[in-house]
Structure formats: structure tokens, C-alpha cells
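REVIEWER CHECKLIST
Item 1: Sequence provided? yes
Item 2: Single chain? yes
Item 3: Sequence as submitted:
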Amino acid sequence: MKKIIFGLVCIFVFASCAQNITRGTQYAKMYQEKPTTILVMPPINNTNFVDAKEYFYTSLSYPLCEKGYYVVSPFLAMDVFQSESAYDSEMFINNSLSKFGEVFGADAALFTIIKDWSKSSVGNTITINIEYILKSTKTGEILFNRKGILSVNCAVSGGTSLFDLAANIINTAVTDKIVAARRCNAYVLYDLPEGKYSPSFGKDMNATVGAMEFKGVVSK
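Item 4: Structure as written out by the authors:
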């Protein structure tokens, strides 16, 4: 896991240096509101791949916790969403989120919009077009927003024999969909300012960030 994160860090630092924009400049509202608790909303899935919604929903909490935020339990939240017929985030993304603040104690709600999900059998690459929007439950302001296209190379390295080709097929079928979602989350949320429970909280305003609209490639 450390190797993966280090690799992502290198990618981001390179991209950010070229842009030379800081977290404090690009995400000033995050530092103004200082959200502590985040509610992950059920992803909005505009693709034909039905399971994409679940893969992203179940994998978003970890990178947010790593960033120093308290995340409302997705399982608890889902029970409430379903009991209140609030499973479709489309109904709330452009409306007041104050109720979510009252019910869950959340300072902000994270929306994800999956616009496209495609898998290439040649090279075993999963390409995802997605947008992340973090909105304040108090003001309705957008605190963090990134969108773009990310290609995740899921091929098994080591050779081109029939065994290797078979391994690629099995590997992609069994594990790579959730891995692709995790890599996408890590890639995009890397630029999110550090939360209250991070030792870097309030000290990362000068850290450089990637573009708000991205296009990248990540190897598994």
C-alpha cells in the first residue's frame, strides 16, 4: 500500500509543480469552513455498469479517514437513506443539505457522479469518467470539486504466455473493478486539504495541487 501511495504522490507532485497552484488558493472555502465530519452520499451512476455505484460507495470512506476526517458510517447512512427513500442523490445535489447536517451531524456531503465506465480487454484497462463534489451542509457552497478521466492499468506483469493472458482475464474479472474505484478515489482525493484529525491540519495551505479537471493514468 505504501508503494502505491508513494507512486501517486510522485504523479501529483509532478503535475502540481507545472500548475503551481496551492491548496489554500484552489480550496480556500475548505480552510474557511474547516469541515470535520463528512457524509458520503450514494454515487450518481450515469453508466450502464450497475455495480459501479456500490464499488465507489464502499471505497470512499478510507481515503477520507486517511485525510483526517471523521466519516459517517456508510452502512448506518445507507440504512437511513433507504428507510427515508433517499437513495438517489440526484434529488439532493442541487438542494439544501441542512437536513443531512441535522440527522448525521455532517459538516459536508460528498457527491460522486460516475459519467462513464469502460473496460478494454486489450491491456486490461478500466477507464472512468467521474466528478467529485464536496458541499457544505451549512451553506450549500462547493468546498472541493475535481472531475476528469482516469485510466487504471490492471494488467498482470510478468510475461505474455497463455498463462499470463489467462491470469489477466481472471484478475480483472475478480478484483480489478473495486481496485479501479479505490485508485480513482486515491488519485482525486489526494488534493483534498487535510482534516482536523491529521497532523498536517491547517499546515498544508501551501501544498501544490493538480488541476481541477484532470486526465491521468494509474498502474495497479
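Item 5: Key structural point noted by reviewer: The helical segments are 2-19, 23-26, 28-33, 52-57, 61-66, 74-83, 98-104, 162-189.
Item 6: Recommendation: ____
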